[in-house]
Specification:
alpha/beta, Rossmann fold
């Protein structure tokens, strides 16, 4: 079983950039916690500051027939701006769980709209970095219900 975790722009700076909003844990620490919790699951982690990379990785799941149980997606700023990313998620054949560390509904007005929420299987917003674990748990529960 494989779960793909995709992070968008600036999330390579987790633990350093605005810790008062995004926390002090690095993505490496978050991934280690996830891997310790679910050692039987293979996690593939990718991060890019480039919109097209995220779209390509999502499309690989469908186009190349990658065996992926689900995708955890924190699209960062592209959540609010990218129709192209939204279209890729809508076309994806596996569950995609949207994650936001902060509560975007309580942030600046331009961050309050997610173009992804209505095309994602589930959204986890404002749970801090634990939102990644909650997303994995959701995908695993969703998969067991489908089996």
């Amino acid at each position: 079983m494989t779960i793909l975790i995709l992070n968008g722009p600036n999330l390579n700076r987790l633990g350093v950039r605005k810790p008062e909003i995004y926390g002090s844990k690095s993505m490496a620490q978050i991934l280690l916690d996830i891997q310790r919790t679910w050692p039987e699951v293979h996690f593939v982690y990718r991060q890019s500051n480039h919109e097209g990379d995220l779209i390509d990785w999502i499309q690989e799941v469908t186009d190349e027939g990658l065996t992926v149980t689900g995708i955890v997606l924190n699209a960062g700023g592209y959540t609010h701006t990218s129709v192209a990313l939204r279209d890729a998620v809508e076309d994806c054949e596996v569950p995609v769980v949207e994650v936001h560390i902060s509560d975007i509904s309580q942030r600046e007005p331009f961050r309050r709209i997610s173009l992804l929420t209505d095309v994602c299987t589930h959204s986890i917003i404002g749970k801090g970095t634990k939102g990644y674990e909650e997303a994995v748990n959701y995908i695993l529960s969703h998969n067991s219900q489908q089996s």
